Amino acid sequence: MFACMFFLLFPFSLVNSAKDTRDDFLQCLHSQNSNSISSFINTPNNSSYSSLLQNYTQNLRVKATKTLEPLVIIKPKKAFHIQTTIICSKKHGVQIRIRSGGHDYEGLSYVSPLPFVVLDLIDLRNITVDLANKSAWVQAGASLGEVYYRIAEKSSKLAFPAGVGLTVGVGGHFSGGGEGMMMRKYGIAADNIIDAKIINAEGKILDRESMGEDLFWAIRGGGGNTFGVVAAWKINLVDVPPVVTVFNVTRTLEQNATNLVHRWQYLVDKFPEDLALRIFVRRVNSSQDGNTTIQAAFTSLFLGRVDRLLPIVQEHFPELGLTKKDCIEMSWINSTLYFAGIPNGASLDVLLKRDPQGRIFFKGKSDYVQEPIPKNALENIWKRLYKMDAKMAELQFTILGGKMNEISEFSIPFPHRAGNLFQIHYALLWHEESIKEINWHMKWIRELYDFMAPYVSNHPRTAYVNYRDLDLGTNNINGNSTYQEACIWGFKYFKVNNFNRLIQVKATVDRDNFFRNEQSIPYLDHYAG
Ligand SMILES: Cc1cc2nc3c(=O)[nH]c(=O)nc-3n(C[C@H](O)[C@H](O)[C@H](O)COP(=O)(O)OP(=O)(O)OC[C@H]3O[C@@H](n4cnc5c(N)ncnc54)[C@H](O)[C@@H]3O)c2cc1C
Ligand SMILES: *[C@@H]1O[C@H](CO)[C@@H](O)[C@H](O)[C@H]1NC(C)=O
Ligand SMILES: *[C@@H]1O[C@H](CO)[C@@H](O)[C@H](O)[C@H]1NC(C)=O
Ligand SMILES: *[C@@H]1O[C@H](CO)[C@@H](O)[C@H](O)[C@H]1NC(C)=O
Ligand SMILES: *[C@@H]1O[C@H](CO)[C@@H](O)[C@H](O)[C@H]1NC(C)=O
Ligand SMILES: *[C@@H]1O[C@H](CO)[C@@H](O)[C@H](O)[C@H]1NC(C)=O
Ligand SMILES: *[C@@H]1O[C@H](CO)[C@@H](O)[C@H](O)[C@H]1NC(C)=O
Ligand SMILES: *[C@@H]1O[C@H](CO)[C@@H](O)[C@H](O)[C@H]1NC(C)=O
Ligand SMILES: *[C@@H]1O[C@H](CO)[C@@H](O)[C@H](O)[C@H]1NC(C)=O
Ligand SMILES: *[C@@H]1O[C@H](CO)[C@@H](O)[C@H](O)[C@H]1NC(C)=O
Ligand SMILES: *[C@@H]1O[C@H](CO)[C@@H](O)[C@H](O)[C@H]1NC(C)=O
Ligand SMILES: *[C@@H]1O[C@H](CO)[C@@H](O)[C@H](O)[C@H]1NC(C)=O
After folding, report:
1. Same domain for 428 and 317?
2. What superkingdom does the record give (predicted)?
3. Which of 22, 30, 37, 41 is the pocket-test mutation for ligand 2 (most atoms within 8 Å of CB)?
4. Are residues 299 and 201 in the same domain?
5. What does the pLDDT look like over 290-335, one tens digit per residue?
6. Are 474 and 387 in contact (CB under 8 A)?
7. Sign, CA torsion 79/84/90/94
8. Does residue 354 fall inside a structural domain?
9. How far is the CA of 303 from the centre of ligand 11 (A)?
10. Which domain holds residue 47?
11. What is the pLDDT at residue 96?
12. Taking the model in full, what pTM does it have?
């Protein structure tokens, strides 16, 4: 009875206070911007509002449980709009959710349990490439595809080591690290950031010099929506040869996939830094007899020509049976399309597309592996993939090593360096929308994660913050989590020393804990200087 009354009354009171808060907030924005806010605000009265919200929701699972909608969607055209949004949000007790590419696995850039505005940086995406200095300024709303395109437009010998998903935003991606096909040669994206413009909780614009090295350290991997709004990054471009080689060789269980995957785990120290070879494992129908089987796709980027690649693979991994005709030579920029699964021959313009992708239910998790996983455990993973309803599960094994081992784990907040062989990304996608289906799928992936415990890193069991996973723990809604609560997920993402340093930086730069979400670094009083 009580629960029922609560259910009836709650929405009305929420609607009323939400309207007042929105009006106050907009009033404040008007006064700060001499009334010229119509070009960058979207309220529920604008038809753009619902269209934007629809486009945002790439992971339908996120909306299945949380229902608050943003009071206003702000699309700043210049830094001043961000500054005034921060000032007015703070004044009226409204939360900010910063959105760049909108790919957060848990939707934290567009949902919140407290009244909030979305700060959508989509219109801040200029990219200025400086060839002479081998660097570029990239505004936070740019996508990886746009970054790759703008570099390649100027030079076929320069590139940037970031992720494979072309519509991923640099605002979130670099804030959480940024792993990609060139990690073994150049480290992750955040390792290659040399300056930044950030707008802090007071609404001040800071660059590397004025923010200081502690804050500059923290924003390169400490996770988004914690220290301020990153408006732009300055990145260091890296050299690539004019011709690179790619392949994507698939093997089913009948073609020895288990042995191949097992053997692959021993190659991390054998391969040169120019070679990355990752594996995607999924359940497929065998083309021979239509029976279900497990398929491992060995997907590779080599920074060189095929004649140099073949002897390396033949020496260290002859079991794969790689032949010259499996390999394709292409420009580095074309390889970015290849890894995104875009058909050969497509125009490079697809790199600039940011259309919303297929709306689907999704859950992801991650692990880092430090000892090769025994064959019988691999076979047990395959058995789980056979479970009737786990039709669209995919495991991605990403090789580490090379340059990743040479960079200190304290260099930036991203700590997954020497000692790790590879990363596992668990992904489960589905279309069925009932709560029963959602629960079933969540149970499946959580059970797989539990099953993996003996085979992956422990104390702490580490995870990648860009594959955000709220199962690992969350801040409380009031934003006053204790150290003991936050370190449960914090140690997993950053390990002990980096987490402690992130706590210290947070205490110095955001005393009101204004920038926060379910997994932002908490503000803890006694750490403030
Ligand atoms: C299809 C797909 C492919 C992917 N491929 C890769 C890959 O190859 N390698 C890899 O490492 N990861 C990959 N990811 C994960 C991706 O790196 C993270 O989801 C990343 O955080 C997304 O950034 P975003 O800007 O697109 O997302 P958003 O949802 O906009 O942002 C993510 C988080 O950062 C915050 N944030 C966003 N912009 C800013 C800003 N300007 N200032 C401060 N905080 C900000 C947000 O509030 C949110 O908490 C992929 C994800 C998807 C969905
Ligand atoms: C939203 O509507 C207001 C008036 O209600 C208008 O001034 C503003 O330009 C609209 N915003 C957009 C982005 O169309
Ligand atoms: C939306 O429109 C209604 C009716 O015209 C108006 O009362 C309300 O103030 C508007 N809200 C905003 C946020 O503009
Ligand atoms: C939403 O996506 C559709 C399809 O790409 C696009 O046409 C539309 O303009 C988008 N809406 C907004 C408000 O950006
Ligand atoms: C982006 O670049 C264009 C052209 O150089 C410039 O006119 C515009 O002001 C820039 N926008 C921002 C937000 O910096
Ligand atoms: C680029 O390099 C040149 C020459 O090395 C230097 O004079 C200039 O200041 C640099 N510009 C920037 C923006 O760093
Ligand atoms: C399968 O792999 C194992 C170990 O790598 C190897 O000994 C065996 O010959 C392979 N079998 C086939 C059929 O390729
Ligand atoms: C595999 O086969 C089953 C049964 O024949 C079919 O329902 C399913 O769609 C097929 N899956 C794929 C990926 O082809
Ligand atoms: C499918 O696999 C089963 C055993 O796993 C086998 O008996 C059957 O012959 C296979 N089907 C076909 C069409 O080959
Ligand atoms: C590799 O091949 C598999 C199986 O055909 C396919 O699903 C996957 O998209 C391919 N990957 C790339 C990068 O081409
Ligand atoms: C890259 O792709 C474009 C468009 O498909 C094609 O015309 C061009 O020949 C390719 N170049 C290289 C070097 O791979
Ligand atoms: C957090 O704040 C809430 C509300 O003010 C309070 O009830 C709760 O005890 C606080 N928790 C901690 C750990 O301080």
Report:
1. yes
2. Eukaryota
3. 41
4. no
5. 678 999 999 999 999 999 999 999 999 999 999 999 999 999 999 9
6. no
7. negative
8. no
9. 17
10. 2-123
11. 97
12. 0.94
| Amino acid (1-letter code) at residue 446 | R
Lookup: tokens for 448: 């797989």
Q: Confirm whether 464 is domain-assigned.
A: no
Ligand nearest to the CA of 40: 2
Which positions are annotated as active-site residues? 467
| Same domain flag for 291 and 309 | yes
Q: How far is CA 116 from CA 12, 70, 338, 468, in A?
A: 18, 5, 39, 20
**pLDDT-based confidence at residue 387 (cuts at 50, 70, 90):** confident
Strand arrangement of the beta sheet that strand 73-74 belongs to: 41-42, 73-74, 116-120, 95-99
What pLDDT does residue 287 have? 66
Domain finish residue from 123, 156, 173: 123
Is 89 part of any domain?
Answer: yes
Q: Which residues on neighbouring strands pair with residue 129, listed in sequence order?
A: 136
**Chosen domain end from 68, 101, 123:** 123
Instruction: Clarify whether residues 326 and 451 are in a common domain.
Output: yes
| CATH code for position 283 | 3.40.462.20
Query: Confidence band (pLDDT; 50, 70, 90) for 190?
Result: very high
Q: 168 CA to middle of ligand 1, Å?
A: 6
List the one residue out of 96, 165, 84 whose CA is nearest residue 520: 96
Tens digit of pLDDT for each residue in 118-129? 999 999 999 999
